[in-house]
Structure formats: C-alpha cells, structure tokens
Amino acid sequence: MSPLAPQPLSPLDGRYQAAVTGLGEHLSEAGLNRARIHVEVEWLIALTDRGFAGSSALSDADKAGLRAIVTDFDEQSIAELGELEAVTRHDVKAVEYFVRARLSELGLDRVAELTHFACTSEDINNLSYALTVRDAVRGVWRPKFDEVIDRLTRLAREYRAVPMLSRTHGQPATPTTMGKELAVFAYRLTRIAKQIDANDYLGKFSGATGTFASHVVADPDASWTTISQEFVESLGLTWNPLTTQIESHDWQAELYGKVSHANRVLHNLATDIWTYISLGYFRQIPQAGATGSSTMPHKINPIRFENAEANLELSSAVLDSLAATLVTSRLQRDLTDSSAQRNIGVGFGHSLLALDNILRGLGEIDLAPEVLAADLDGNWEVLGEAIQTVIRAEVVAGRSTISDPYALLKELTRGKRVNGEGLAAFVETLEIGDEAKARLLALTPGSYIGLADELLDRL
Asked: What is the pLDDT, as a whole number, of residue 4?
C-alpha cells in the first residue's frame, strides 16, 4: 500500500474546514505570527515617536511602510518566516529577523536595533495571543453565537402561544408552550453572551521577569510603567502591571470558562430539540439529495444536533483543559503554556462548528402543533395540580372543608389515565365555590399554561 500524501489530521482542517475557516484568520500559526509582527512594529513606532535613544519620529510614509508589513502579510511571508524559524529554532526570534529584513528594505536600518527592544518573547506573545483571541471571539465566534440566539428568539416568539405537554423527569407534567421553552435557552445564552463581552483581554510588557530591569538600565529616567501601559492600551488591551515573565493568563481562564459554559447550555438545547424531534413535536424538513440512512430510505436523522453535541463536548474538553493549565506557571516562567495555547483555535473551532450545526438544524425543523395537541389531550391527569391547588385556596377562603386536597387528587390521578369527561365529573362533586368550579370546568391541558405567553415579553 502506497503511503498517503500529507493529510489534515484534524477534521477542523479537513471535513469541516469551511465551517470554521474564519477562525484561521486569527487563531492559526500564521494569524499568531501576523499579530507578533504587528506588536513588534507598533513597539518600534512607539519608541521612535518618543525619540528614545536619540531616535527621531518616523515619517508618515515610513510608518505606513512598516504597517504594510502586517497588512500585506501573505503566503510568501509565511514561507519566509518558516525558513527563518528552521534556522533560529525560535518562533519569536524568527519574527524579529523578519521585521529587521523589512526595515532594511525600507531604508530604516538606523532604527533596526529598536526592533524587539527590551522585550522578552512573552512580551510579544502575550499581546499577540490577546489580540488574536479577542478578534476571533468578537469577529467570528460571537456573531455566530448571536445568530443562534436570534434564531431561537424568533422561534420562541413564533411559538409563544403553542401549548405543549411538559415532561419533568420524563413524565407528563404541567403544560408550557414551545415558545417559552425555547425562550429559556435564548435568555440563558444572552446572559452568557454579556459575560463574555465583559471579559478583559489583559497584556503585559515589562521584560524578562516583569520588573522592567533592562528598560531601567537602558534609560533610568524614562517612565517605563507609563510607557508600557500606554503601549498595551494603544492595542486595545487592558494593562496588567504585576506579572512574572508571562502575563498570568487569568483572563484566558475566565474567558474559556464562560465559553465552555455556553457550550454546555447549547448542548442542553441540542439534546432537548433532539428529544422533541423524537416525540414528533418537530418535523424535520427533507433536504434535497440528502440521505438519512444507508439502508432505511424513510429516515431523516437529527444529525445537526447530534453533530453539535459531539463538538460541544470536544470544545469544552479543550477549553476546560486550557483554563486549568494556563493559570499555573512554575516560579517566574515555564513553557507549558506555549504548547497549550496553540490549541486555542481547536477549542473555539469545535464550538463554532457546533454553532453552525445548531443554526442549520433550527432552520430544518417545523413545529407539528397537531402532535402537541394530541399529546395534551391524552394527558388530562396533569390538571390534578390545578384542581388540588384551587381546593386548597377554597379551604383557606372558607368555601370548602375538604381535608388533604393533595391526597384526594393523588388517589384520583397518580399513575392513572383520566379523560376530560371523567375529570369534569369529579370536579362537579367538589365542595368548592361556584366561581372556582366554573374555572376548573373550563380548564383544559392546552389552556393550563399560566403566564407562559406573557413571559416571552421578558426575553
């Protein structure tokens, strides 16, 4: 058997690449290197703007030329960096040499020694990761997350008044509406979205052990903490003043924990929709050319939601591992975070793929209200809760002397089927006020939904 040509090892880079390609713009090795170049270039510009070490501010044309190194970053740039790293065996050093080469091409050799000045690799890396993760979350993951919330919200409003039998513990229970149940998920996800949006993206820029030691030796009179803060904030990040060699990664642990939480709520949504499909509450809309089963031609399998479940589990496994790993670094620095952070894109990739499947799945189902209605009509015993509650209120009001209303209804309904006529006959015998009796006689499983419709206004 001939060996295969090199193939993608991860399905995110193979079978599912189209669904997650936007993340590669930021969370790939190339995206990280572009961000590193961006940080190196902006640091050099910041130093020359301050006239550090006798330098003078670069012209607007020179600054534009430097920034074009970032905006024009392409396949050729990626290949050149790869060649440099093969020699340096150090990714950030390769970036430094890459920038120096561009400076020479721009005729800016006079400021070449300000490239990577007073920086440890982690000064560049932590800012680059913060930038790439922030842009991936805000520009790729969150918009897809919002699409799912919006689709859920629209469906919730569409089905807000469609009554549905609840199933607490999997058993027939007090009815609700399909809209209210979908609104629960939309509300939960909206809360988490706000928490994710509020997450800080921290950055440090303080040298080999976070003390600005080499900075102070190079220029004792400069206000290095101010310079560092202004530089980090100029990149749109939050400055962290107290670190070791690395930024402590707490913001990453916080963010990944929130995204993992979102994954688990989405997993709950996927399993519930799958169950509603199995109950016949949702019909699946056939997709042209699609095959549900290789042997049973009638089948339309809920694969979108099953695929989402698997990918949400994988995403949370990766993100939970990152959150646990990244907050620990031995003494002033160890290298465990270097390998771990290269999997950030994997964690977000599986989550994004799940979001895509859920969004598509929600667009391929249609409510079957007649199935919901038949289910309700077959479970009149769920009104036992309503009847015993009304009796208790009547007892307190002095209009009934019935003792232990709960036990009375338990005897009538527990583990038994009761139809509408039988329940009405039972209500007629009750010692309660006429108005209360009329209310109970008018009640059906389909109308016993409380404020479910009104609650949609809270969404």
From this structure: 84
Helix (H) / strand (E) element for 195: namely helix 178-197
Whether 28 maps to a domain, the answer reads yes
Residue 163 is predicted with a pLDDT of 98
Residues 59, 173, single domain; the answer is no
State the sign of the Cα–Cα–Cα–Cα dihedral 207, 211, 213, 216: positive
Two structure tokens written together for 415: 């583990």
pLDDT, tens digit (0-9, with 9 covering 90-100), for 286-341 = 776 566 655 655 657 889 999 999 999 999 999 999 999 999 999 999 999 999 99
Answer yes or no: 223 catalytic.
Answer: no
Of 344, 275, 343, 258, nearest to 309 by C-alpha is: 275
Does 74 share its domain with 211?
A: no
> Looking at 169, 294, 298, 403, which residue is catalytic?
169
Note whether residue 8 is domain-resident: no
Q: What is the CATH number of the domain that holds 68?
A: 1.10.275.10
Nearest CA to 119 among 231, 280, 10, 7? 231
Q: Which residue has the tokens 């949609």?
A: 456
Residue 79 has pLDDT above 70, yes or no: yes
Give the ranges where 303-419 is alpha helix by DSSP (H): 303-326, 336-341, 344-362, 369-377, 384-396, 405-413
Backbone phi, then psi, for 88, in 5-degree steps? Answer: -75, -25
Last residue of one domain, picked from the residues 349, 369, 389? 369
Rounded to the nearest 10 degrees, the angle between the axes of helix 344-362 and helix 303-326 is: 150
Domains contained in the chain, number: 3
Q: Cα-atom radius of gyration of the chain, to the nearest Å?
A: 31
Amino acid at 76: Q
The reported pLDDT for the residue numbered 414 is 83
Range(s) of the domain holding residue 209: 122-286+298-369
Within 8 A by CB and 6+ apart from 284, the residues are: 277, 300, 302, 364, 365, 366
Beta bridge partners of 166: 173
* Residue where one domain finishes, among candidates 119, 137, 170: 119
**One domain, residues 437 and 411:** yes
Residues whose CB is less than 8 angstroms from the CB of residue 152 and which lie 6 or more positions away in sequence, other chains included = 182, 183, 185, 186, 189, 269, 362
Residues 44 and 129 in one domain: no
Catalytic position from the list 278, 293, 338, 447: 293
Give the pLDDT of residue 67: 98
Task: Report the b/e string of 165-190 with b at 16+ CB within 10 A.
Answer: bbeeeeebebbbbbbbbbbbbbbbbe
For the question of residue 169 being annotated catalytic, the response is yes
Can you give the pLDDT at residue 117? 97
pLDDT tens digits for range 134-182: 999 999 999 999 999 999 999 999 999 999 999 999 999 999 999 999 9
